[in-house]
Specification:
Elements: H1 2-20, H2 23-45, H3 56-80, H4 88-93, H5 101-124, H6 127-133, H7 140-166, H8 170-194, H9 201-209, H10 220-232, H11 236-258, H12 263-282, H13 306-320, H14 328-343, H15 351-366, H16 371-374, H17 379-382, H18 387-414, H19 421-449, H20 455-484, H21 487-509
């Protein structure tokens, strides 16, 4: 056991030393931890059902559906690539250590607790949305967080189990895929049959997915029971479900340990896949391991200098978009922006609801844009043009795409809200300006935090900075709207403030090309 404890202690020391070498990152993590702790306190004390009190069966049905989807794709991934608690550093260090396989598995389990806690922290930010629409029981927030924690803990070992037994032969893998796909088809078929005789799709959805049948499915049933205690209250089944999940985890470990399978060889493929995802995430790229299909397009470069980067991005969008700039991002932005209007049924409808929610969603798409990839190549630093022109042309395509998406979004919104064409045009302008704020604040963040080892930390910093700089404009807009009751004046206020912020960030971001060592 001393070797196992030594490895864990060494891992902890390395983490502390890494943060000590980067005090800026340490300060950032402390601030983020304090903010999340404060947010958790607010979440715990805020009342439930602020916007409306929806039936509890709706939340149970949503939880069941999300668990079914997550388990389906998790098992599918386990069949194809497996799952892993480990990194390549563990493969080189722990796998060669003088400890038995049982303790290697235990080491991976302990390390994965960090990722599980991170998932719980992200779930905290979704609790206010749940509390706005549903009345939670005492300790309801705790029940939801425990359910998320246990599910994220058990998912990797479930993937290991599935992969270990399906990887014995290609025939086993094919059979396993067909079984899981057949179960999914059967589930959809039964759901379709259950809709017969129902007054609405929502009624059929609630009737089917809130059924007690799902409570008897291993893992899914226990996690659902723990989560639904947030509504119905904590009873003895809550604790029984926790004990069952702990027993399942122990049984999985025992099976892996006592089987004659080559655990180390089986886990290497999943570790490699996980390492590729982490590398892509750190570089700000798409974390999907599947190559996207791109079309072959005809075109060349008619410009030179910084403008050639703009033409390059245009060609890339032509390869991946369905039409002009219309791609999956456009679809999700429009769907989220318009769908939010129908979710806020108890609030007076306003086009600003769509503007602010779609702008919030836009932030997470912008941080994965094309321009950051240019910083990995040296030629953009060597172009003999002003830094301002290089920043402008490197980000121009993203701004044009935001204009395209915003135009489609608010054309649809015009027919859903009682508003005027000038207000719609200003909403389009504000949507583009919000995108520009995100882009140029991203550049400034890279100038300030380029040495930070974690891209996740950078996203938190960017989100905090953006929220800080755009909040004054929203506050002034709310004051003007409450006094004048005029949407046009409110939209103008937001536009003027965002223009000011964009200009400031653009001027601050120009210096990024003065130093090639950005990462």
């Amino acid at each position: 056991m001393s070797a196992f404890v030594f490895i864990l202690r060494k891992q902890l020391k390395n983490i502390i030393r890494g943060l000590a070498k980067k005090p800026l990152a340490l300060i950032g993590y402390i601030l983020i931890g304090a903010l999340m702790l404060g947010f958790l306190v607010v979440v715990m004390i805020m009342p439930s059902g602020l916007i409306q009190s929806l039936p509890s069966d709706i939340l149970v049905s949503i939880i069941t559906l999300l668990l079914l989807i997550a388990m389906y794709f998790g098992i599918r991934q386990g069949i194809e690539r497996g799952s892993s608690y480990f990194r390549f550093s563990d493969v080189n260090f722990v796998f060669t250590a003088p400890i038995n396989p049982w303790r290697v598995l235990l080491f991976g389990f302990v390390k994965n607790m960090g990722a599980s806690l991170l998932a719980v922290f992200f779930m905290i930010f979704q609790i206010p949305n749940i509390k706005n629409y549903f009345v939670l029981a005492d300790y309801g927030v705790v029940s939801i967080l425990i359910a998320v924690l246990l599910y994220t803990v058990i998912t990797p070992i479930l993937g290991m189990m599935v992969y270990t037994f399906s990887s014995k032969s290609s025939q086993n893998r094919t059979i396993a895929k067909r079984i899981i796909d057949a179960l999914a088809v059967v589930l959809i078929l039964f759901f379709s049959i259950s809709l017969i005789g129902k007054d609405s799709l929502l009624q059929g959805f609630i009737s089917f997915f809130s059924s007690k049948f799902f409570s008897y499915i291993p893992i899914l049933g226990q996690v659902r029971t723990i989560a639904q205690a947030a509504i119905y209250g904590i009873d003895y089944m809550f604790f029984v479900s926790i004990l069952i999940l702990v027993a399942i985890i122990g049984a999985f470990f025992a099976v892996l340990y006592n089987s004659n399978l080559d655990f180390y060889e089986d886990v290497l493929a999943a570790t490699e896949a996980q390492e590729l995802k982490i590398k892509a995430k750190r570089e700000g790229r798409d974390t999907s391991l599947h190559k996207r299909k791109t079309r072959k397009v005809k075109g060349g470069f008619s410009s030179y200098g910084a403008k050639a980067i703009f033409e390059k991005h245009l060609l890339e969008y032509r390869k991946t978009s369905f039409f002009l700039f219309f791609d999956t991002t456009t679809f999700f932005i429009i769907l989220a922006g318009i769908g939010f209007k129908f979710m806020m049924t108890q609030i007076k409808p306003s086009i600003f609801m769509t503007l602010f929610f779609s702008a919030y969603m836009l932030f997470f798409f912008v941080v994965q844009g094309k321009w950051p990839l240019e910083l990995e190549k040296p030629y953009i630093f060597l172009i003999p043009e002003s830094n301002g022109r290089k920043v402008l042309y490197a980000t121009l395509t993203e701004n044009i795409k935001n204009l395209f998406d915003g135009t489609l979004l608010f054309i649809v919104a015009y027919f859903l809200y009682e508003t005027t064409i000038p207000v719609v045009l200003l909403c389009i302008v504000n949507y583009v300006l919000y995108g520009a704020v995100y882009i140029y604040s991203d550049i400034v963040s890279r100038r300030l935090f380029s040495s930070v080892h974690s891209k996740v930390f950078q996203v938190f910093v960017k989100l905090f900075v953006v929220a800080f700089v755009i909040s004054p404009g929203i506050i002034i807009m709310v004051i003007v709207q409450s006094i004048t009751q005029n949407e046009l004046y409110s939209a103008i206020i937001i536009a003027l403030w965002n223009i000011f912020v964009v200009i400031c960030f653009f001027l601050a971001s120009v210096g990024i090309f003065k130093n090639m060592e950005t990462d």
